[in-house]
Amino acid sequence: MTEACHIHGGSGYMQDTEINRLFRANKLLEIGAGTSEVRKIIIAEELLRA
């Protein structure tokens, strides 16, 4: 997705463009997926302690 912003140049980073909206949505999904993975690890560790 970063490559798409680079291809579009400055317009890829402007707030009004579709590519910028998709780029931000993609970043949010990456962050959200990471936090759920961390939660799974914490839960697994707690279950293994019991």
UniProtKB/TrEMBL annotation:
SUPFAM superfamilies linked to this entry: Acyl-CoA dehydrogenase C-terminal domain-like (SSF47203)
Keyword list, A-Z: Flavoprotein
Pfam families, alphabetized: Acyl-CoA_dh_1
Protein name from the UniProt record: Acyl-CoA dehydrogenase family protein
Lineage: Bacteria, Pseudomonadati, Pseudomonadota, Alphaproteobacteria, Rhodobacterales
Start and end residues of each Acyl-CoA dehydrogenase/oxidase C-terminal domain: 2-48
UniProt keyword Flavoprotein, yes or no: yes
